[in-house]
From TrEMBL:
One of its GO terms (cellular component) is membrane. The lineage of its organism: Bacteria, Pseudomonadati, Acidobacteriota, Terriglobia, Terriglobales. Residues 18-125 form the Rieske domain. GO terms for molecular function: 2 iron, 2 sulfur cluster binding; metal ion binding; oxidoreductase activity. Gene3D superfamilies: Naphthalene 1,2-dioxygenase Alpha Subunit, Chain A, domain 1, Rieske [2Fe-2S] iron-sulphur domain. It comes from the Bacteria. Keywords: 2Fe-2S, Iron, Iron-sulfur, Membrane, Metal-binding, Oxidoreductase, Transmembrane, Transmembrane helix. It comes from Granulicella tundricola (strain ATCC BAA-1859 / DSM 23138 / MP5ACTX9). This is Rieske (2Fe-2S) iron-sulfur domain protein. It is found in: Membrane.
Length: 356
């Protein structure tokens, strides 16, 4: 689903992090594609040897998009003057206009390239802080979904959101919208609203909803009861944009990584990658899960599109306790990350209460 609404107020973006730029399946050997990530135009591709790469989609010579040129499976060539670049390093390998009288060494020129890795069928790109240079010596681990068995099934869902990343993230972690936005016979209804108590604890760069029994008013969780094992779920939020959820029922498990990624300062994209071994041998489970999962994500997307209509008028907004406390923590964590000043907003375990 798309919207003709323009993005709302811009958000300040966090760099020095891995962000999902696209699906690996879309990167064929010898082919390239483009993406926009944190307002940075990217040229993504896969070399003939299978290596994926990410370059800034701008030639350092005159600024024409490199995607307008050619890729032979090993080098990217600019359409304007034929400059060639090794795409993983960005190093220039040839400037056709040079003569034997020129002293310029092409190999000392670099187009901007970024670290690029594949995990869980996703192409992750590391966008460094300004002034960090072509490469950062030590990078944080590439995010991936935790897995607890060798055999599992997986699925991926995505949706574009016409709001900035802050609104996307606090919507992602908001516990009170479920009975209203996600009303369905297979999920929950307004009639199922009841008081909940959750225990939170600080973790590096985020916070965790401690291991607990999942919501009794959600039909998918009830299905796990067929295994006759205690069911527990743990949810982590980690800067800049990641929500991990793990559900365990003995040896059976479901895990997901949901990210809200800034496309520009005013728009974002939600990606959900899930893996599981529950009902592994039941036919059509992946098809059914993907169908209902897509409906779930679409409900969030539709709500964000409607919210964007109001955000165009720059209204004053409010956050309330306790349901909005995770959003407050997110803003405090982000501000501390951006400024380098401030402590973790959670000093220790906290108990929150709300109705949903």
């Amino acid at each position: 689903m798309t919207s003709n609404l323009q993005g709302g107020p811009p958000a300040e973006l966090i760099f020095g992090e891995w962000y999902p730029a696209g699906r690996s399946a879309g990167l064929k050997k010898g082919k390239t594609t483009t993406a926009l990530l944190c307002g940075v135009p990217l040229l993504l591709g896969r070399k003939n040897d299978g290596t994926v790469f990410a370059m800034r989609d701008l030639c350092p010579h005159r600024g024409i998009p490199l995607s307008a040129g050619w890729f032979d499976g090993n080098e990217v060539q600019c359409k304007y003057h034929g400059w060639k670049f090794e795409p993983c390093s960005g190093q220039c390998t040839e400037i056709p206009s040079l003569t034997g009288l020129d002293i310029l060494q092409p190999t000392k020129i670099y187009a901007t390239s970024y670290p690029c890795e594949e995990r869980d069928g996703t192409c992750w790109v590391y966008l460094p802080e300004a002034g960090a240079g072509r490469r950062t010596a030590e990078l944080p681990p590439v995010p991936e979904v935790p897995k607890f068995s060798a055999k599992f099934r997986s699925a991926h869902l995505t949706a574009d959101l016409p709001c900035n990343v802050d609104h996307g993230i606090i919507g992602l972690m908001d516990p009170a919208h479920g009975p209203f936005v996600h009303q369905a016979w297979w999920w929950r209804s307004r009639a199922s609203i009841h008081e909940k108590t959750k225990h939170f604890e600080p973790i590096p760069g985020g916070f965790r909803i401690s291991s607990h029994a999942p919501s009794a008013n959600s039909a998918p969780y009830k299905l796990l009861g067929v295994y006759g094992e205690p069911i527990t779920t743990t949810i982590d939020f980690v800067l800049p944009n990641r929500r991990y959820e793990t559900i365990r029922a003995g040896e059976k498990w479901f895990a997901s990584l949901t990210t809200v990624t800034p496309v520009t300062a005013s728009t974002c994209r939600i990606d959900v990658y899930a893996a599981w071994n529950v009902f592994y041998n039941v036919p059509l489970v992946k098809t059914i899960a993907t169908f209902f999962g897509a409906r779930f994500v679409r409900q969030d997307q539709e709500t964000m599109i409607e919210q964007a209509q109001g955000l165009r008028f720059r209204p004053a907004l409010m956050l309330i306790d306790d349901a909005d406390q995770p959003a407050k923590w997110y803003f405090a964590l982000k501000q501390a990350r951006l400024t380098g000043i401030g402590e973790h907003p959670l000093k220790g375990p906290v108990e929150l209460h709300w109705r949903s």
